[in-house]
Every structure is written in C-alpha cells, then in structure tokens.
Amino acid sequence: MAGVLKLLLKPIKTIKKFSLLGKTSFIVILLILLVAIFAPCISIHPYNVSSGPPLSPPGGEHPLGTDELGIDLWAQICYGARVSLLVGFLTALLAALGGGLIGIVSGYLGGWTDKILMRIIDIMIVLPDLPVMIVMAAFFGPSLLNIILVLALFSWVFPARIVRSQVLMLKEQGYIKSAETYGAGAWYLIHRHFLPEVFPLVAVNMVRLTGRAVVAEAGLSFLGLGDPTSKSWGLIMHHAINFAGIYFTPFWKWWLLYPWLALTLMVISLAFISRELEKMADPRMGR
Amino acid sequence: MPRKHLLIILVLVISASLLLFGCGSDQTRDDQNAGVASEEQGQVDVIRLEGGDWGYPSPYAHYPRGPGGFKMALIFDGLLERGEKGLIPWLAEKYEIKDNGKQYLFTIRDGVKWHDGKPFTAEDVKFTFEYASKHPMVWSDIGSDDIEKVESVGDRQVLVTVSEPNASMLYNLGQTRIIPKHIWENVDHPKEFTGPEAVTGTGPYRLTDYNKEHGTYRFEAFGDFWGPVQKVKVIEFIPVSEPVLAFEKGEIDLTGVSPDVLPRFQNNPAYKVVQSPGFWGYRLLFNMGDYPVLRHKELRQAISYAIDAQELINKVERGAAVPGSAGILPPDHVMYNSNVKQYNLNLKKAKDLLARLGYDRLDEKGICQNKDGKKLSFTLSVPDRAVRMAEVLQEQLAKAGIEIKVQSADTKTHDARVRNNEYQLAVLGHGGWGNDPDYLRERFGGLFKGGISPSASGLQGYNNQELNDLLEKQCLEMDEQKRKQLIFKIQEILAEDVPEIPLYYTTGYSVYRPDKYDGWMFMFDHHSLTHSKLSYLERD
What we know:
The structure holds two protein chains of two kinds. Chain A has helices at 2-16, 20-37, 39-42, 73-109, 111-126, 129-140, 144-155, 157-171, 174-181, 186-222, 233-242, 252-255, 257-281. By secondary structure, chain A is mainly α. The model of chain A has no long low-confidence stretch (mean pLDDT 85). Chain B has two domains: 6-238 and 508-536, D-Maltodextrin-Binding Protein, domain 2; 280-506, Roll (Dipeptide-binding Protein, domain 3), CATH 3.10.105. In chain B, a hairpin with a 3-residue loop joins strand 6 (147-153) and strand 7 (157-162). Classes of the chains: A mainly alpha, B alpha+beta. The A-B interface holds A 48-50, 54, 68-70, 138, 142, 224, 228-229, 239, 242-245, 247-249, 251 and B 242-245, 256-258, 260-261, 264, 314-316, 318, 384-385, 387-388, 390-392, 394-395, 398, 406, 408, 410. Chain B: It comes from Desulfoscipio geothermicus DSM 3669.
C-alpha cells in the first residue's frame, strides 16, 4: 500500500518543483483531459447532429456558436479533445515503446545490428515526414487508427536514439559489468538496470512526441486526410477553411478561432511541460 | 547569445519576405493597368483564371470534367458550337438533314487553317469521324457503331450516314472535335500521344504552356483563326489558394462566390454578379447490380422521402441551388416536366414504405431491420468536397431508420470508383444536366457508349422495359414536339421508379469586373461562363 502511495506521490512531487508556467501548463492539460473524459456531460448538444440554426454566433444556447450544418461547436471541441488526446498519447506510447525497445537492442547488442538500426534511423530522420505522412495517409485511407500508426512510424526514431546512447553509456558502467560477470542475462539487465535508468528520458520525450502527434494529426485532418466524420480539432478547422470565402464573413471568428485556440493551448502547454521535465532530467539545461 | 542572433535573423527574414510580397502586388497592379490601356475596343491582353491540373488539353488526354474538356475546346473546333440560344454553325458553314435523319450533309468553311499552317479540308472531317469511331474520345459523343459511313463530296462537303436516325445525332456530330488527319493518321495510341503536335487544332487559341505539377495553362490567340476576332489575347490559368482573395487582389479576373460573400460585390458598379442556371447537380446513386436490396423501388422511394433537399441546399450550398426533380431533368431544361411525382420530406411515408418491405422494427440504435435481423445500413461514397453533404444525409436518413457510413476520397479517385461500380451508395456531382435529353438513354437505358465522363457513369443493375422502349423511341423521333411528349413520359416513369435521386442543381454566383472584360456568356445548356468558347470571342 505504501508503495502505491509513494508511486502516486512521486509525480506530484515532480510537479511541485515546476515553475509557475509549468504548473499552469499542467493544469491546462489536466483541464483538457477532464473535458475529454466528461465530454458527454458538459456538452449540452450532440456533437454529430445539428442542434440549431447553421452558423449562429456564440452566445445564448450555443456558447461557442454553431458550424455550417448547425452543429454545436462547444460539443465538437469537447469530443475533439478526445480525438486529439487519444492520437497524441497513443502515438507517443507506441513510439516510446517501439523506439525504446529498438534503442535498447541496438545499444546493448552493438555490432551489425546496431549499425543497421542506426542507418535506418538516419534514413528516417532525413526523410521529410509530412510529405511521406500525407502519401501514406492517402494510401491507407482515412481512419484514426491509420493516422496513429503512420505518426508512430515517424516518431519512434527520437526515443530510439536517446535510449541507445544511454544504454551505450550504461553498458560500460562497473555495476553492469559486474552483474554480467555474475551471469545476469540480457532480459534481467534490461528490466532491472536499463529500463529504470532510461525511463525518465523516454517520459520526457513522450510528452514532446504527444505535442508533435497532436499537431500532425490536426495537420493531416486539416488537409482532409483524417477520418472525415470524426470530430478532431484539425477537421473542424478543415471544414471551416473549406467553407467558401470564410475570411470574408464573420464566421471565422468562432468556427475557426475556437478550435485553433484549443489546439494552440494544448500544444503550448505540452511544450512547457516537456521543457520543465527536461530541466529536471538534465540539470545543464537549467542555465 | 545565439538566441539574440536568431532573433535578428528572424526579423531580417520577415522584413525581406514582406518586401517581396509588396513587390508581388505591385506587379499585378501594373498588369491590370496594361489591361485597361487596350480596353477601348473591348479587348483585353490577358485574362487570368483559376488553374488546376485537368490533363493535357488534347481530345484524348484531358480529364473528363468541364475544366478539362472546355480547355481542350479552346484549341479544337467542332462542326457546330454551342451558342447562347442553341447550336450555331462553326466549322460547318451549313448543314442539311436528309432522309429523315439518316444522313447529314455538312458544308465546311473555306480558308480554315490548322495551327501549323496546313489547310483544313473535308478529308480531316471524314478522318475524324472514322478515327473517333475506332478510338472513342474522352468526351465521346459518337459510339463505335453509330456511324455507318462517311464520304467526302467534293472538297467542301461531308456526307455522314448514321446507322439509325437519332434525334441527338446532330448535336453529337457537331460537338465532335475535329482533329488534323496529317498528324493523327499515324497515331495508334491516342491516349498516350501528348506531344506538342497533339494540340494542333483549328480553334481560336493555341496552347503555349502547360505545367501539370503547378496546374497552369497558357493559351494564346491564334493569328490565322478563321472566325470571329479573339477579344482576349491570352488566357492564363494560374494556381490560386483562395479564389475570392485572389479575385479581390486582381490576380484572377472571374471567380465563383458563395451567397455569404455576395454582399461584398453586389450594388457595386465595379463588379458584375451573374447567377448560373442549374445545370450542375449532385445525384445519389444506388449500386443495384451488386446489392440486390437496392433493387426494391420502395426502398429507393423511402430514401427519397427521407431526404430534405431544401435543408441540404440551405446548409451545404448556402441557398444557391434548386432542389432536384425526381424526373432527372432540371427545371432550367427545355424539356423539363414540372408535373412528375415529387418526393418532399415525409418521414411517415418513408417508414410506411420500409415497413412494406418488411423493415418494420428498430434495433437499439434506431436502425430499421427486418425479422431476420437484416439492417438497413449502407456505405455512402462521396468526393471529399461533399463530406459535409454526406453528414447531413447521414443525419436525415437516420431519422428514417437508415444507417449511413461515410467514405470519402478525392474527386478523381471517387470518379474512378463510381465508374468501376465500386460503391454501394454514392453522391456524384457533375455538369451536363442541360444537354440533349438523350443522356437519359445513356444513363438508364442500359446502354454505355464507352465514354468516361462522370455524367455517363454510375448505373448498373437497373432495367425497366417500358422505359427502355420509350428511350429508344424518343431518339428516333425527329419531330421536336412529339419527342418532348416522350421525354415528359420518360420523366414520369423515372420519378416513379427513382433509379437515382437528383439531390439539387447548383445555381452559384460568378463575379467579374466589367471594366476589365465584359464578354462573358453562358452556353444555352451550360452552367459556367468560363467554359464557353464564345466568351472570349467577338460576338454580335
């Protein structure tokens, strides 16, 4: 019991050490998370069926107005938070898991495996990701799962490189050497020594990957490559922009502005949190 | 310290780009002035329009949609052209219909030259008809067995004998683009022939630049053109990201505007706003060949009753459209029958019809199912610009207990899917609704000419013998009034049978600056100002 409590207390302690900016960012993310979880309770209107006159301005029955089909924007943004967070976290998780594993294998085994994996990583880093993502999203067809997979496919290289360098460094440490001489197997070393050392770094990276994935998903949806009927923030903006002559009408003031605001808030908050965490993981950053 | 450097660089970059943008707009302003200078004769040097890649403008390589086909038509002439009121003599000076529609005698114009300077002769016309029967053109108006034989009578006359009389044959023959014999006679694969010679025509414009990647075209007036003076010397199609913005900045000279933006241009003498006739429409297709459930007339009627076209128009087109007529032909059509059965929103009737088919119970999600548990759930394929429409349809049909799953693709992929019958339900939007009603025969008579135009594709598994007989009869009927009666009857049958649902015909607005160029016109059966060739030529 005490162990569990300790595990819960640890992140809280970490957050306590955050600067004011970091704390605010954390609260914003927490709020977005709550909005996403309780979307059905806090949105009065349905998110996929029209509930009022088209393009009515904010105020009254629709706090953030409605879009061209008369669908409530607040509801769409609430449900959109689900999509954005889901894509962000799942992508980051997949990328961190895959990348971490590849990094450990590459660093620990060394030799040809390492060389081949590193060259693949080099290629992936050089490849411009957005064009390739567009091609792949267009090829595999628009669906949320595909987007997550495509994004993860382009995100694993960052954790992989970091983990590999860490493992390379750890491998030469005296206590690892001695564990090896006592007959510790690869699996034992990985989960007993490498993972605990590498985890904080991967966690920091995950936050950053989440932000990146959220933006990329919005970008792909914005270009019309997302799931056409899901309600992600990028897709709301896509529909708004595709509305003929939106900038010549007052409609952009709510239809485009609010999803953009939500997206920006979330991405900026994630960026600040990742910076705070980085500061802690690497004291040299704190200059 | 590096941060400070970064800031300075950033500021420099931003100011540099601002400077560049400034220069850009200056340049366009200069061009505009140049346009005004020579305006006294109503002529203009350059007209710029929204670009986009619509294929190489040869009769065999362009994309089978308006923006592709009508660019091609600037280069290639037909024997007849579509004027403001009807067909007008073009490469043919006059024509005679002989033997009750079995033979057509065209007298071709003298002194016409191809773009490469060679004279245009009756041989070219004969060659074209024979070649087009063998290799159907993209906008194929004549099929492989439509023409029995073509003879040239002397130097300037061509006698076409058709297999059987057909009321729309004059239109089809007249619209076929005439291609030069001396270039095409050795071409075996016309679709792959895309050299510079492939765009040699007799038309008023020559293609001087085409860039597939940027989607740009440049057409220059042909000096030795036989016909009316070109009032526009150069037509350029340029890439545009936001058409209305580009129009306001003077980058393009004509654009379509949505009703919401209209107030900016209305009541302003500098602009002229024109509403298009409703000849561009969306239709809902049923793949009756692969999905037998769709063969039930009652189901299709129920879907018709469940769709509120006016809501679609208000939300998706912001009011700029007219609801579809169940008889297919739009209200602006010369042979429109206003007395056909119409399906206004009526959920009760829709549910009654579904119950009659056995779909009389609802599952927990409110979807109709029959006693075997078979649900009314369909996948609707739409082009990506109609996703919003699909969402409205989804909502409307859900009220009648029909579940719709939306699948979207870009326009060209979607066109191909519909062409190959890879869909269950599909929304297809295209022009040509104002054409000769013989297109009804192509769509519903189970007769497919091999053309790849979206207006011809998308119906299989539908067969109604009475309708087929009437469709065959109308095209043999050369008397206009009697034919109209037949077409009226055909519309009544179509309205009862609902082989497809015309959702609405758009009546969008175009805006242009009359000071710069005021020659725009609509062809009698078409929705777009920029598509008509005569828009760029001197008219009386």
